[in-house]
Automatic annotation (TrEMBL), chains A, B:
Keywords of the record: DNA-binding, Transcription, Transcription regulation
Keyword check for DNA damage: no
Species for this entry: Halocynthiibacter halioticoli
Matches recorded under Pfam families: LacI, Peripla_BP_3
Disordered as annotated region, ranges: 1-20
One GO MF term: DNA-binding transcription factor activity
Entry keyword Transit peptide: no
Compositionally biased tracts (Basic and acidic residues): 1-10
Name the UniProt record assigns to this protein: LacI family transcriptional regulator
Lineage: Bacteria, Pseudomonadati, Pseudomonadota, Alphaproteobacteria, Rhodobacterales
The organism's place on the tree of life at top rank: Bacteria
Amino acid sequence: MGASRDDKSRNPRQSESGAVSIRDVAKRAGVSIASVSRALNSGSGSVSKATQEKVAAAAQALNYRPNQAGRALRSQSTNTFALINSNIQNNFYAAIAWELERLLSAEKSALLVYTSNEDAETQDRCIEDIRSRQVSGVFFLCAVDSPGLTTLTKNDPVVFINRRLQSCPEISFVGIDDEAAARAQMRSGARRDLRNIAIIHGPESSDTSARRLRGMLDAARDAGANIAPNAIKEARLSMESGYDCAGPLLDDKNLDAIFCGNDQIAYGVYRRCLERGIAVPDQLRIYGFDDNPMNEWLAPWLNTVRVPHVELARTAVEQMQTLTGNGAAREILLPYELIQRA
Amino acid sequence: MGASRDDKSRNPRQSESGAVSIRDVAKRAGVSIASVSRALNSGSGSVSKATQEKVAAAAQALNYRPNQAGRALRSQSTNTFALINSNIQNNFYAAIAWELERLLSAEKSALLVYTSNEDAETQDRCIEDIRSRQVSGVFFLCAVDSPGLTTLTKNDPVVFINRRLQSCPEISFVGIDDEAAARAQMRSGARRDLRNIAIIHGPESSDTSARRLRGMLDAARDAGANIAPNAIKEARLSMESGYDCAGPLLDDKNLDAIFCGNDQIAYGVYRRCLERGIAVPDQLRIYGFDDNPMNEWLAPWLNTVRVPHVELARTAVEQMQTLTGNGAAREILLPYELIQRA
DNA sequence: AATCATATTGGAAACGTTTACAATTGCGAG
DNA sequence: CTCGCAATTGTAAACGTTTCCAATATGATT
């Protein structure tokens, strides 16, 4: 039976598609495909040492690699995870993505990377695609609210990194206590006697940005800092937006410091200062948030809050493993660190 | 037959696995799975308008997404590409990755991202994984020589971006004329009368770095520039390595400029200058290569060569499409631009 | 009204795995 | 020598698609 099937559907040497399948290995090793599968996965049911060796030799000789599509179809598990990133150009996010990839590849898993650009519609397109690819889990690096998210979180393990969504309180989250960190940073500024300050915060629609703003305002009030009525501005989380917002603020010659919702915004502020001939940090201090790994090299003028991106990624992967093992969703806050460079 | 099969293997409402399959759609629409497939793909063989609508409605109602594993298994084509990046933390590379993702997602394809860290063994592990995932094509962003590469290039469409390999002359390449660009940059430095110069080039094992070095030396000789015997150093393509190499060079107080193999190296040099109290660009000019998109914001002191990363990605995707359509491998050089900031 | 061409449809096979189940083997004990 | 048990192996079904082929419905032409 099996033989006749083989005879008519297989070429003598190898499959016509060019790819070598488990069948080819079985034939060469002189065993059944079931044995090949068992030998290679050494999972359910054991094989004799002789078979094990024959199969290994045949697989080696044919340069066989199991077809993941077949495996995924049968076992309902692609070893594939997805990352939806808001903006891979932000080096801080890229560093997290890189760490995720590193950790996952150590577990024989691969990472599909998507970019949402903080846009709900784009994010939903990514989610659509992900849902059809039967991924094992999805990481969000700065998620935004979008209709498709509900369906996804219902069916797949999801971990939010760095930003959670109020609309998804039951979803795992790994980040820092943004409000406390912002408060601590503002207090540290107050201790340096930076009295006249401005704030350029991220979109209030972002939970993270909102918390950071709350913390800043809270601590500023406590410290009795001076914030002019129009010295609190909302920006998008980009350099351009920081640049735009900084313009009017810099007219105030008494300004001591600008506190920014993240480092990208701070970069924009910096450039505006350069153009205006304002010396940083001598005339004006700039505070950011995240601590982009490049700061150490390129932004010695930047004070910021270090979000531990390596640990963030590690913890996110651990939590993902918990979820795929049917563990409970958790909210995990990691320690942050104030970085005062100038 | 079909009915009895359905009766015993399907729940009345939906598949027990939670995922809705083409069968569920077919049942709800009251047509065969073949018709559903045809209606949704509108490919081989047409369907009547009535069926089309019934299927669309059912798919919509059940929130159906075709299972890519099944599709891939049958049609031997995952709409998935892989990118092996040498170092995603380099913003210049991240920008290319981002652009690739953007272009591919517009074609309903996804991108698996790997990081090789310029390490042959790591790259081979990535290639192993890729080979088992039946990807439609592989992009390399700065490939290194490795044993697995030969097998891969034999079986899958491959496009090299930014760096080619002498060992793979038949593989498509998209980049710039590095030697000419380096020559032009060095000449532009000579015209500014930067006579005493040093060079920190990338690894000579990298074709790109070697070409850049050749161009620099060539133009420096023509211009009669002064290069002290120990003022040509080989670095890895990292900020740390640039920092290390810069140390000894900066002892020469007459130095006018340092030309670096890429921007990362230049960042390391910059930091060393800061620490030594050397004013950039007043006392020393720094030249890099690539033009990291963040330079505009953070490195106004950096002269560099802009490699058109958006066009690079676009051209790479186009060439990949050519390859998958059985077109010929090509070597494509795009125009570069000298950026003189300081 | 009967016939034929054409447009649609459904049945079934195939893609490459994993795994439940049955069959076979080897081997020691009765 | 036979029996039974454990270890190993093979057979076949199933995962969700796409697509070939045959069957049916539709509509036009005689």
